[in-house]
Amino acid sequence: TGNPPGKAHMGTSFSEFNTGEFADSPQTDLGVLLGQVATACKVISAAVARGPLSDTLGYTGTDNIQGENQQKLDLIANELMIRWTEWGGQVAAMASEEMADIYRIPTQYRQGRYLLVFDPLDGSSNLDVNVSVGSIFSILERPQTEGEVEDADFLQPGVMQVAAGYALYGPATMLVVTTGHGVNGFTLDEETGEFILTHPGLTISPDTREFAINASNARMWEAPVIRYIDECLAGVTGPRGEAFNMRWVASMVAEIHRILIRGGVFLYPKDNRDPTRPGKLRLMYEANPMSFIVEQAGGAASTGREPILQVQPQALHQRVAVILGSRNEVARLVQYHLETP
Ligand code: AHG
Ligand code: MN
Ligand code: MN
Ligand code: MN
């Protein structure tokens, strides 16, 4: 969330920050919902940390709608996100990577004006090797409040998001949030159970010398991406005249967090493995929330051919090409897509 610059200070709790931002505003409900999502993330953080001790690592044997084998913790995190947010009266329906269909709030609870979209556990292939994972969320407003929520109500371009964020379950658990007034990062104080503002006003440096891409897909990349990565790898004697560094955690949350802290560019581009597949990552609950955060931090996010936040979704689980991070590098990649189609 984003208090006006100067108002928020290090050490403020997420609860206080949220209350301050939304006091007496018609968006009070949004602050309440963000508080509940934050609580859900604390509970998921605890469940993830206990994984090796509680027989919750490993696979369930079921596939999700993307054809990925679901891990036990994918489903546990999905349940926890629902359970800790559905009762509060702020949400009308939810959509998640791990649910083929939308989840309408049971009638015993008040229906709210928001739609909650989430990736309950991002980077779950890293669980069994104890590498950082996260949760990603996006909040949309329900377009109309009559009748039942339908899939179509969710199909809003990313520019319509009213809030987005992620929790990173790393050496420390962190919550990074935007409501469209900048990006703020909070660190979970395990002793008090509060998220504390430690990273107010996060910004992404416009230039970088670090990229992130799964290079095992190189043989399938399109020409503009091959050109860009070749130039990065060419080092000081190449066209960039600089040596680039590379990172690939295989947890999008961890990659985006690194980019918010020290800059960088992240790519999961379209490749030619399957002409019907525009990329790997999912538009609604991975690309859109991360693009909102990155743009709010002064970075850029593109498919290579159009801004991610302007893509009109056609389906809940649709995939999209993702190029985001330091804005001058993203601009260069967009230029290469124009020059080398
Ligand atoms: P999820 O675990 O939610 O399915 O997401 C995994 C995503 C993302 O976190 C990461 O950037 C990417 O998949 C890693 O893909 P590769 O395994 O192809 O490297
Ligand atoms: Mn998955
Ligand atoms: Mn994910
Ligand atoms: Mn996931």
From TrEMBL:
The UniProt keywords, alphabetically, are: Carbohydrate metabolism, Cytoplasm, Hydrolase, Magnesium, Metal-binding
Q: Which residues form the Fructose-1-6-bisphosphatase class I N-terminal domain?
A: 26-200
CDD domains linked: FBPase
Q: State the free-text cofactor note.
A: Binds 2 magnesium ions per subunit.
Q: Which Gene3D superfamilies match?
A: 3.40.190.80, Fructose-1,6-Bisphosphatase, subunit A, domain 1 (3.30.540.10)
- Cite the annotated pathway: Carbohydrate biosynthesis
Residue stretches making up the Fructose-1-6-bisphosphatase class 1 C-terminal domain: 205-337
Question: Could you tell me which InterPro entries the record lists for this protein?
Answer: FBPase_C_dom, FBPase_class-1, FBPase_N, FBPtase
State the top-level EC class. hydrolase
- Report the protein name in the record: Fructose-1,6-bisphosphatase class 1
Coding gene? fbp
